[in-house]
Specification:
The structure is a homotetramer. The first copy, chain A, contains 5 helices and no strands. Chain A has helices at about 5-15, 25-40, 50-55, 60-80, 85-100. The longest helix of chain A is centred in the last third of the chain and has 21 residues, at about 60-80. By secondary structure, chain A is mainly alpha-helical. The first copy, chain A, has a single domain (about 5-100), classed as Orthogonal Bundle (Helix Hairpins). In chain A, helix 1 (about 5-15) packs across helix 4 and helix 2 runs antiparallel to helix 4 (about 60-80). Chains A, B, C, D: It holds the Pfam family MazG-like. Chains A, B, C, D: GO terms for molecular function: nucleoside triphosphate diphosphatase activity. Chains A, B, C, D: This is Nucleotide pyrophosphohydrolase. Chains A, B, C, D: One of its GO terms (biological process) is nucleoside triphosphate catabolic process.
Chain lengths: ~100, ~100, ~100, ~100
């Protein structure tokens, strides 16, 4: 599945559970922030070396991938609510970044 | 461009600026959290109605889309560093969510 | 107990558990961010009216107070590590804010 | 000034600028999260050693202290809105932590 298909699936999932009324942009951004912190939590007490090792450990990285997915699921839900094409948004921002941070 | 192409472009962008040494998983997650808060900031003082209206205003939503892109750029960078296929991670998490939250 | 006494107690608590080596400024700020998100989580799906009602409900507010305390405990730990007098820091920032946002 | 005096001053500051209507618990927690991320931002690309050195540099630490104060100002505003005694909340949480994490 590509992003538009995943976005439609995430919407259908929320709709089937009557969650859509909670999915205002403000609430979705808050919920996404909470998932982001759960991702952060995996790394908080690790040295940089331990963090890198943990993130590459096939077992211990599983919850890290799940938190990444949780952030992305809310991001796609927000993009759906706002009608944002995330791939286009990334491309546009990369073009701006290229002007802001010229390559040496 | 699809996600693998965007991921490669983001990596090349960082590489050309000698930023790769900073891109440990721990640092990338922190940087992504900061971008997430910049997205949150656009909504903090708005009523739910104002937040929804703002997010659909063609002019005022532009910085919101840019913050969404900033979060995603770091997410794709992190996924690249960790070797995570984000579309597969979302699909797997949706399957888990379906077990955790059965449809009524 | 006042803030200096609480700060000393928090340090002694961490010391007795051999946690001090983990309490670098970078790690403490990450840990505090995670506690902040746990505070945020209580409010994410509530309307402003529900959030206000919840926060004043004598039972449901208990975990909110605990998350506030968790943020503050890490803040006092960070202030201790950095040698910051938090009351003085607040006072100085309020003086700056008064210049930045003149009263009408 | 002690915390009750600072809390009263922060309330008067907001009142004089007609900000009180924006200070719902939900909004204050969001605003506090944003300030927390601004604190995090100072540390995101630093090694643990650089972060510690920066935080102790008398010049470079000034903005760090200001971000700490910004978080605390919103925390005291939230405590005021909710009628929370923050020193008591910290004390209570420390007592709970002592049960949860017994000293070795």
């Amino acid at each position: 599945m590509d992003l538009p298909e995943l976005t439609a699936e995430i919407r259908a999932f929320a709709e089937a559970r009557d969650w859509l009324p909670y999915h205002s942009p403000k609430n979705l951004v808050m919920a996404m922030s909470v998932e982001m912190a759960e991702l952060l939590e995996h790394f908080q007490w690790l040295t940089p070396e331990q963090a890198t090792a943990m993130a590459h450990d096939p077992v211990r990285r599983v919850p890290v991938e799940e938190e990444m997915a949780d952030v992305l699921i809310y991001m796609l839900r927000l993009a759906d609510v706002l009608g944002v094409d995330v791939e286009a948004a990334i491309r546009d921002k990369m073009a701006k970044n290229a002007l802001k941070y010229p390559a040496p």
